[in-house]
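Hi C.,

You asked whether I'd gotten around to modeling the 437-residue construct. I have! Everything is below, sequence then structure, no commentary in between.
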Amino acid sequence: MQVSVETTGELGRKMTIAVPADEVEKEISSRLRRLAKTARLPGFRPGKAPLKVIEARYGSQVLQEVAGQLIERSLREALSRESLQPAGGTEIDPKSIGRGKDLEYVARFDVFPEIRKLDLTGLTIERPVCEVTDTDVEQTLESMRKQYTDWRPLDRPAQSGDRLRIDFHGTLDGAPFRGGDAENYSVMVGSDTMLPEFAQGLDGVSSGDEPVITVTYPDNHHEPEVAGKQAEFRVKVLEVAEPVLPEIDAEFVKLFGVQNGGVEKLREDVRENLSREMAERINRTVRDRVMQALIDANQVELPAKLVAEEVQRMAQANQELLRQQAGVAAAAPDPAELEPQARRRVALGLIVYEVVKALNLRPDKDQMRAKVTKMAGSYENPDAFVQWYYSDQQRVQQLEAQILEEQVVEKLLETATVTEQAVTVDGLMSGAGSTNI
């Protein structure tokens, strides 16, 4: 077998492979002889047809089958000989396939980039430090009150913070359109979930009003049917209501499972939950900063096929999410919009893989068991949950990946300069200073 390799770019490789004609012929003859033992042809008893008849009948088919197998086998051997590993798929371009001549083809592929920086030596990682204050606890209690808001109907005009119940009927050029009608629909005055023109049209309305509101949908609206178009909505205001929040008292705390200790016990529980959530957010923020530092330290060319495959996966996931939310098939997102995030994911995957390999990391089975046991603690039958969790290999693999990632972050932080960054609960909750990977 003859093999030549040509570099076509930073990662691109072109490999030309030639399998000797005698090897090709040997494989073809062997297969034809095996076929002759079982072939059923008109005018011949099973397995008694002459080899020349078998060859005339099946020769072309056998040639293609042999060529496919020899290409697969010789490519594997050539890659091993040249110490090359394709990143993504390999394009095969047959140049010569026929009886009595060498089987020659060209394989084109990308190789993996070389990752040089596998630690954070010389780099600084800021670790957020957050203390839960009394103000944070009170703000959380206020949010909990809002979960049990009652609504009191009013006769006055609507103002910001009020809730409207409305019917509406929308038309495009005089014709109804999908999603343009609703009855007894609830909307908050001043909410940014509505188109600005629709929100303005509801400002100051009273129960019984029937405003007509004209809106222009943005060009990038997720529903192509209305994107960039003007619609008219005939609205009927059924009710204007203001929020009434419950008092924080003995009855209120029972809503959250606090049977003893009253309001102060609820405050203690809130502080404990906030502290636990802040610890988790700090860990995620540090993880994001470590991963971003790795990407910044390894600005490498990425295999085009891996990026394209990641874009496709993300597009399919986005479409499925929109389908679940809207209940209808959604248009495919623009690949150009997904590519930056896809490139980041591919880069991070390649870098973390090399770090894991360099440090010879393995998922800690005890750590995995501890995580699963902790999750099982909230179930009535923890043992059954553990058994269920480990019964699905996909769940186990996802947990293994999570454990490995935690080990990578821990090891890399040992090589970095770690400083503390004081943040508030609000700052940490809003993701200030963190990076989205």
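If it helps when you're writing up: The two ends are 45 Å apart (CA to CA).

Thanks,
B.
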